[in-house]
Amino acid sequence: MEFPIRCFSCGGVIGDLYEQYKSLSKDKGPEAALNDLGLDRYCCRRMFVSHIEITDKISKYPRI
Ligand SMILES: [Zn+2]
Fold this sequence. Notes:
mainly alpha; 4 helices; 0% strand
């Protein structure tokens, strides 16, 4: 599943932050990355922490 554009609970736009989160979390870890991105709500934070990228594993055809 692709990363959601909006938080499921509060509806805040978070999809644009995912690429930054991935690069920051590699360097600093997930907690510091979420703090740097200004994500204070725990509903939005769980969207990042709980996301698993499985699109490439389950898709029958390669992505263009
Ligand atoms: Zn939220």
